[in-house]
Structure prediction request, 346 residues.
Amino acid sequence: MPRLVCRRGRGGACEGRPMSLPRLCLLMVAALALGSVLAVTLGETSFSLQQYGQALFQPGSPPAEVLWSIRAPRVSVAALVGAGLGMAGATMQGLLRNPLADPGVLGVSAVSGLGAAFAISAGLAVLPGAVELSALAGALVAGALVVIVAARFREPEALILFGVSLSAFGGALTALVFNLSRSPVATAEMLAWLMGSVENRDAMDALRAAAPMALGAALCLRAGAGLRMLTLGEEAARMSALPMARLRVYAVAGSALLTGAAVAASGVIGFVGLAAPHLVRALVRDDPKRILWPAALAGALLVVLADLAARMIPTEQELKLGVVTALFGAPAFALLAWRVARSWRS
Prediction:
């Protein structure tokens, strides 16, 4: 982790000087590249140096098929999913001014999962891309509802309450789909999809996820100035020359698109959007605009490493990606909540 330069503030406290954004992003890209190389080269099937040479110089060889046709697309989808969740989490934490906020607070993940579960229950899983499109459609519907609320109410509490209610409603409808499912096979498929995984993903899955994520990222970046202004308080933001209502809608719509595309590509992956911004927050001095790209890169690195762990942990059946992120993310969330509670008391 890069070292923060210490300077003395009031009372002798040590304050970190923020690292330049290009340098921070460059370091994060290097870490992501290293993690991606490890994720492609390592796996359940181990290769010798000779087989790695075949993969590099003989495109049609079996090692090349494993590395470039199976593992590389999987790593690409994992990186995209993590980047989308990381940027969405940073955007929501800046918009709601709450360090414990994550993409799921909007209810988009729950409604997106509902769309996927309905498609599987209806037998549409046999059609290529049908489940992913249904999940994205659910996310867009939920995102549109949240955007309407964000446009009418400036208070973050209203957005949080609506998101929680939408999430609960989506979860209830998903449970109803499970309950009414007559096919044990479809029920098992729904459960496996909702647990989250990037297994058996290919280049087309990465391309399908990249398009809505690019639009969502552009909207979040466009809202960056408004997120920074909100750190001064609602009154200061309202008195600024910025179109805060429009920027708030951009932030919500961008987060919804990023979250929906991530859920459509991999299922529900928890805790990444919560944890990724906190990995880099100290390096940008809690600037909601500067943190967006570093949080995206941190999220990509987290999901790539989590997927590598899911493949490398010796179990009879490969662990689901959502299970791995929850196992590591839940204790991290508890520690973060404890730290936030201590800061409130002080």
The chain has one domain: 79-337. Residues 279 and 298 are 7 Å apart (CA to CA). The two ends are 28 Å apart (CA to CA). Strands lie at 5-8, 14-17.
